[in-house]
Design goal:
Elements (H helix, E strand, L loop, with lengths): L1 H26 L2 H4 L7 E8 L5 E3 L10 E7 L4 H16 L7 E7 L11 E5 L1 H7 L6 E5 L4 E7 L5 H14 L4
Parallel strand pairs: 3-4, 4-5
Antiparallel strand pairs: 1-7, 2-5, 3-6, 6-7
Helix pairs in contact: 3-5
Length: 176
């Protein structure tokens, strides 16, 4: 009789945690989908770019193979210049992963741009329409395959949080 009781206690100690975990997951799924560990806002649905979507001033540049911090704007004013400085700082603070990142100033209209330390590109009408759903001063993260993944507000950008997101991505990413 004593051995049956021990068997049931042992069996319950293995089965009950799994049963409670499964019940919690299926009865309260919102608690698992609301909270994420990233600080940027996911772009949902993901915007996929093609070679025709971005025309670079220097034709040798592309989005393929590197993670790209992109600031999209109509004109480069003081907010734009601060965002470009923040992007440069982020890239430098990534240390050995610095070579995996490039900075891009994406102009949504065909205005002239003064000299910057970032790549300069012009977006197509299709990409403009997709990016117009976000606020004007947005900083985007584009993966090495050309997908716009994360968005940050550049007006109150916290560099440490962007770096944490990038380090987490680079740790698990096999591309770029």
């Amino acid at each position: 009789m004593n051995s049956k009781k021990e068997l049931w206690i042992l069996l319950a100690s293995f089965v009950l945690p799994i049963a409670f975990g499964a019940a919690f997951f299926y009865l309260n799924p919102a608690s698992f989908t609301q909270h994420t560990v990233n600080y940027g806002e996911f772009v949902n649905p993901i915007i996929t770019t093609t070679k025709q979507d971005i025309t670079f001033i220097d034709t040798q540049n592309s989005l393929q193979g590197l993670w790209t911090l992109t600031y999209a704007t109509k004109r480069c004013d003081h907010v734009c210049i601060k965002a470009l400085q923040d992007m440069k700082t982020i890239r430098i603070l990534m240390n050995e992963d610095m070579r995996r990142i490039q900075n891009l100033l994406l102009m949504t209209n065909k205005t002239k741009v003064q000299q910057t330390n970032a790549l300069v590109g012009y977006s197509s009408k299709v990409l403009n329409q997709q990016l117009n759903q976000f606020s004007e001063n947005s900083l985007f993260l584009i993966d090495p395959l050309g997908n716009v993944m994360l968005r940050y507000n550049s007006k109150n950008l916290e560099i440490k949080r962007v770096i944490k997101d990038l380090k987490r991505l680079f740790k698990y990413s096999r591309i770029g």
